[in-house]
User: What shape does this take?
Amino acid sequence: MTQLKTDLSSFNNDWYKPGGTLFKRALWYFVSAYFFKSSFPFYGFKRFLLRSFGAKVGKDVTIKPHVSIKYPWKLVVGDHVWIGEQVWIDNLAKVTLKDNSCVSQGAMLLCGNHNYKRSTFDLLIGEITLEEGAWAGAQTTVCPGVRLGSHSLLTVGSVATKSLEAYWIYQGNPAQKLKIREIKS
Assistant: This one.
């Protein structure tokens, strides 16, 4: 049996439109490098910059240093959201972080992947949503098209390849249900 091989020379991404003008994307590259990917500490100014580039950002959002956001115009952030150090929001598609959700340090929200079944390695994208109170723990990965249900928890180093149910704790690669998340006052 003859197997086809991946042929990256035939990859064609022309269908994908990142939004924004070329100038806006280039300007974001420099703004992001100076204010987000650096040690710049001022949350309020970061919120202002994100809004200036088309993100919808709620109140009291914490954005720690060394955060990478691909396209702010594809980002929706609710109130009292925490985004930890070295988070990577690779939002080729829309990413929504609802009120009181948390993305801990080193977590990756990856809206893009490639179709390994095609010789052309086609780009695949899917939106990501963290519902109210959801928590993507440190060093976690959330894959394209995944929704973290209300108050669900993806534990340290886990990989969410499918959506998580509300109020459940998930662990592993791929993430599996571990137990109910009980929140006390």
Q: What stands out?
A: The mean pLDDT is 97. Residues 20-180 form a domain with the UDP N-Acetylglucosamine Acyltransferase; domain 1 fold (CATH 2.160.10.10). The CA atoms of residues 141 and 159 lie 5 Å apart. The chain has one domain: 20-180.
